[in-house]
Amino acid sequence: MLRRVLTLMIGFAAMAIATGAVAVVSAEVKDKLPSKSDQSCLKCHEYDKASNILAGKFVDVANKSKSMQVQIDQDMEVIFFDDSTVLKNAPSLKEIPKQESVRIVYSKKDGKIFAEQVEVKKGLEVSKDQLITVEQVAELVTKGSEKGKYVLLDSRPEDMYNQGHIPSALPMPFFAFDKLQEKLLPKDKDVMQIYYCAGFS
Question: Average pLDDT, whole number, for the chain?
Fold first, then answer.
């Protein structure tokens, strides 16, 4: 029987940005520079352990000066770009929605912050037949994971899990998916895998 994987998205779920390898930088970036991230980004990503990363909210772009503004907590960063800057998940810098989350791989050129790569947050698209309602989850939780034949996985950071989680849920932060899948994912293909996060994606 085909593996049944139902996905509960109560959350800011996974960014397409989030591949788990936050330290990936372009070949041109030679110097290890400190990373700076908005606190909202650090709830789900470990950018503070990487180098050459700026992560925050996109504010505006000025094509004439070839610069953009990104808000990281209370600070406004001015970041320069040129034709070699790689843009992911948006057709152009001008079309990035204001206050959208961005991750920038940067270097320093002539004392200025220069964007090697700009990656825009992209929500995970889940087909309707893979979604499950809160009521359905509540019903399964009442039965218990063994009787209900499900495993409930909390993909938020572990400190959020420790503050409170749905009964029977197991902690599986999405950036640790590769490390934890062997341990937490069921061998029985008929067991439903239900994932949830911190808000609807």
Answer: 81
